[in-house]
Specification:
This protein is of the alpha+beta class. It is 28% helix and 19% strand.
Length: 99
């Protein structure tokens, strides 16, 4: 898998993750800035670092499971690992500007 293929797979994953809506805020998790990293490795191995709007968020398990399930359906993904982190803590400034 060359760098162009990895970049294309990363973008496909990012687009797929836009279908997941944060139940509290009502916007997708990508535009909210909850996805910190999407790393694509050889063989279609994907590692995602994400956060939630607050530590102890009642939707944490739901969102982490939704990300994991969503990524598995992207063509080219052979393995997906989702890690929840709170470093750095999420702030509203991380949201994409609407427009």
């Amino acid at each position: 898998m060359d760098e162009d293929e990895k970049a294309a797979l990363t973008e496909a994953i990012r687009n797929a993750l836009r279908m997941i809506i944060d139940p509290e805020i009502g916007r997708n998790i990508v535009d909210l800035g909850l996805i910190y990293e999407i790393a694509v490795e050889e063989g279609g191995i994907v590692r995602i670092a994400m956060t939630t709007t607050t530590r102890g968020c009642p939707a944490s398990d739901y969102l982490k499971d939704a990300v994991s399930n969503c990524v598995w359906y992207v063509p080219g993904v052979e393995y997906a690992e989702v890690r929840l982190t709170y470093e750095p803590p999420w702030t509203p400034e991380m949201m994409a500007v609407e427009g």
